[in-house]
Amino acid sequence: MEVRAVGHCYLHRHLADVTTTHLIFPGGVNAHIFVSWLHPFKEQKLVVVGADGMAVFDDAQPWGRKLSVYSHRIRWENGCPVPVKAEPTHVPVEPREPLAEECAHFLSCIASRKRPRTDAAEAIRVLRVLARAEENIGRPSSPKDSTLRAGSWFAHETAVVDPGVSIGDGTKIWHFSHVLRGSRIGRDCVIGQNVMIGPDVIIGDGCKIQNNVSIYRGVTLEDAVFCGPSCVFTNVVNPRAEIDRKSEFRPTVVRRGATIGANATIVCGVELGEYCFVGAGAVVTKDVPPHALVVGNPARQIGWVSRAGERLGPDLTCPRTGERYAERDGRLVRVAREETAHSPERAS
User: Fold this and answer.
1) Which residues contact 316 (CB under 8 A, 6 or more apart)?
2) Which of 20, 110, 208, 276 is at a distance of 20 to 30 A from 9, taking alpha carbons?
3) pLDDT tens digits for 287-331?
């Protein structure tokens, strides 16, 4: 059986108030279930459509009108279907309480050791359908968040995600964080507590942004970037509260695999190279080469790090992975194992 489900949020950001579930059975039978917590009236109605008629069970009707049969049929005229409608025929239903009848049947089966009409196996089948429907819904969409991608990403109930945001599957957004309009966050990212992103910020796949980080317009993080707790990005070099300088934002690009340590400050208009490492508390005022290890205020290079984040010794070989590097024209490059890396002068 195939299960398809769609849900929408109105009262709660992460719990669907309205759902539609479609069930497609191997024999060709199709069914759909519509549920809404928002409807102002109670409606519990089952409609079965067959080739020669339709049956409707409306639990909100009086006992004499709960079950109705409609002898509707379809007549074909010149290749076009024409419905032929009929008045309903009401089928008497004995007035009994359903839950009481179920309990009585269950007790009777216990006494007679007979198999009940519904048992644990039936319950498991129902739960499997519900689980597949819930999985299919993923994160329900909201009219306020109509441009959000309905995928398997998560946002804590205290987080705020503005309309016009794109978030990749597997990404988690934690307590009190705010993603502003126009921002794009990739797959499998972790956004920590009290993080602000945007507006119009681009973040790649697999990034980890720790607590208390603000990423402003003009900042771009490529894939697998690590931002340590309370690190700081800027987008204006000479801000004044009295002067609007939004047209003077300077872009900051953080390349793939870079690490920014806790409480570091990245002055706008710079580029952090691939797999570079900015030490905790450093103040970066100029571009950082790929694989460079920088510390201090202003930040200065004191060595090289591997793709695994390990500081390299004179042989420029990663102690964790065995990858070998060479320094060429003031840059660090990865070399094949059969190559021989010359011994460079240490960066200072």
Assistant:
1) 304, 324, 325, 326, 327, 332, 341, 344
2) 208
3) 999 999 999 999 999 999 999 999 999 999 999 999 999 999 989
Distance CA 102, CA 214 (A): 58
pLDDT at 281: 97
315 Cβ partners below 8 Å, 6+ apart?
A: 324, 341, 343
pLDDT average, residue stretch 192-210: 97
| Residues 212-247 pLDDT 10s | 999 999 999 999 999 999 999 999 999 999 999 988
Q: How many CB atoms lie within 10 A of CB 226?
A: 21
Strand 184-185 vs strand 196-197: parallel, antiparallel, or unpaired?
Answer: unpaired
Nearest Cα neighbor of 287 from 262, 307, 305, 267 is 267
Which phi and psi (to 5°) does residue 97 adopt?
-75, 120
What is the Cα Rg of the chain in Å?
A: 31
Tell me the pLDDT band of 171, cut-offs 50, 70 and 90.
Answer: very high
Whole-prediction pTM: 0.57
pLDDT at 338: 53
Q: Letter for the amino acid at 90?
A: H
CA distance 104 to 93: 18
Q: Where are the beta strands (DSSP E) in 194-306?
A: 196-197, 202-203, 208-209, 214-215, 219-221, 226-227, 232-233, 252-254, 259-260, 265-266, 271-272, 277-278, 283-284, 292-295, 300-304
Q: Which residues, in sequence order, are CB contacts of 287 under 8 Å at separation 6+? A: 270, 271, 272, 273
pLDDT beyond 90 at 343: no
CA 42 and chain centroid, separation:
33
292, HSE (Cβ side, Cα atoms, 13 Å):
20
Integer Cα distance of 346 and 165 in angstroms: 45
pLDDT of res. 17: 83
DSSP state of 162: -
